[in-house]
Amino acid sequence: MIEAGIHLVHKTVGQSSFDVVRGFKRRAFEAGQKKLALGHGGTLDPFADGLLLVLAGQATRLMELMHPLPKTYVAEVAWGVETDTCDLQGLSLSEGDASRLTPAALNTALTPFLGWTEQVPPATSAKKIDGEAAYKKAHRGEVVLMKPSRVFLLSARWISHELPRRSTLELTCRGGFYVRSLARDLGRALGCGAHLAALRRTAIGPWADPGLNREQLLKGADLLPWCPSRLLSDEDADHLSHGRVIPVGESWPATWAPPEGFPDPGAPLRALHEGRLVALLKPAEEGLRTFANLRGGL
What we know:
Layout: E1 5-11, H1 17-30, E2 38-40, E3 49-56, E4 70-79, E5 81-83, E6 92-95, H2 103-110, E7 115-119, E8 128-129, E9 132-133, H3 134-139, E10 149-162, E11 166-174, H4 179-190, E12 194-204, E13 207-208, E14 215-218, E15 229-231, H5 234-241, E16 251-252, E17 269-273, E18 276-284, E19 287-293
Parallel strand pairs: 3-12, 15-17
Antiparallel strand pairs: 1-3, 1-14, 2-3, 4-11, 4-12, 5-6, 7-10, 8-9, 10-11, 12-13, 15-16, 17-18, 18-19
């Protein structure tokens, strides 16, 4: 049986994010859970590996709350060639001389990309154009013009260099940031071209990659730990289950906070009853009201 909640999974190189979800669907089908809702909380490209969140059951209703969380990656940037996909799987668009790159120059090149900036996603991204993913249009040979998106990069530091061939970067960004685009833009800024050669996602918010062939299930108070909590009595829980307002009462502070300087990811009030997350609450004139009822609890 696949339990409802958020499953921390290590996605391997070669798998798509949907391949991982498809594996969960197969397991659910074999366990007789044919109607179990499943989804993932943030795509990883097939050439990348690392942490993927698989949301099961009522946890799929938490998907939008995953997007604004900080995500940490280790990225390998290959110098001297820009590709049409901005990664190692693309065709060469241009080549340049990377022989003059230095660690100091690479440190300086990172600075303009920190904080809020405008970033053009890759044409082979999952960004929607007229309701369809851009990569589907690109794979059909259509000309794809991507509009810039507002993105946030909290931190970036080079952790190793093999100049002039490649360098390894560790970064923390908000959802919606394309590390492939950063590699492309660094290559253009340095005048030599670049593409992303490898990518690993090591963390999303408070959760770390469990490692190869490992899986971890999050339930109850382990879900949404950046949100404050309201502990419910049996009477409170009954009122909420019937759509009624409950008193504001006493709330408990969040147990995890984003790193300093990171944009507020938004923190609804969690309703916990007997150790289970049963609802998300919002203020009402008379007290607190449910805006997401997680029926059965997580």
